[in-house]
Amino acid sequence: MSQTTDGRVKPSYFPQLAAERLDIALCRTSTAVARAADAHAGAQGLGVGQHLVLKMLAAVGPCSQQTLSEELRIDRSVMVGVCDDLERDGLVRRERNPRDRRSYAVTITDVGRRRLTEVEKSIPGFLDDVFQPLSHQERAQLTALLNKLLNPST
């Protein structure tokens, strides 16, 4: 229950719904975390998708946009814009894929690596803020549970 500005008690149905429907609770939580991530990324000057692309390229090396899209679960049409923006800012470059001349390999640049390093410094504090209601043990448990849902075969 919450109070309106005129002092009346306003019933709140969502806590009951969330307790009954884990899927709804997870969707709403995901939306809240995504909004917080977008706001944080905006303050850093690098979108969430851009950050993820740089992070993956730094970890695994040059990839096609299709591979980036599939691995990061970013729609292919959105990935084109993400890579366009990163390339415009000098953070990645596109080169013909030597293994498949019909596609381009996206490669992180030295400028992109430095930018990624800068942005990564702010992530632990952001995560601490967003997941502040959870203890470290609960965060680890949530991480394990989400990984189990995302990778049921492992």
UniProtKB/TrEMBL annotation:
Pfam families the UniProt entry points to: MarR_2
Listed Gene3D superfamilies: Winged helix-like DNA-binding domain superfamily/Winged helix DNA-binding domain
InterPro entries xrefs: HTH_MarR-typ (IPR000835), MarR/SlyA-like (IPR039422), WH-like_DNA-bd_sf (IPR036388), WH_DNA-bd_sf (IPR036390)
Domain HTH marR-type: 19-151
Protein name (database record): HTH marR-type domain-containing protein
Organism: Actinomadura miaoliensis
Origin organism lineage: Bacteria, Bacillati, Actinomycetota, Actinomycetes, Streptosporangiales
